[in-house]
Amino acid sequence: MTNIAHSVDQAFYFITWVSVALLAIVTFFMVYFAIKYRKDKHPKAEEIEGHLWLEILWTVLPTILVMFMFYMGYTGFVLMRNVPDDAMEVKVTAQMWSWQFQYDSGKVSDILVLPIDEPIKLSLGAKDVLHSLFIPAFRVKEDAVPGVPTYLWFIAEELGEYDLFCAEYCGLGHSGMITKVNILSKAEFDKWNTVKTAAPDALGLLKAKGCLGCHSLDGTRKVGPALNDIADKPGMLADGSAYKADKAYIKRAILKPKAEVVKDYPPIMPTIPLTDEELEIISAFLAGEEKPVAPSGKEVLKTKGCLGCHSLDGTRKIGPPLNGIFGRKGTLADSTAYEADRAYIKRAILEPKAEVVKDYPPIMPTIPLSKAELSGVLDYLKETK
Ligand code: CUA
Question: From ligand 1's centre to the CA of 320, what distance in Å?
Answer without folding.
Answer: 20
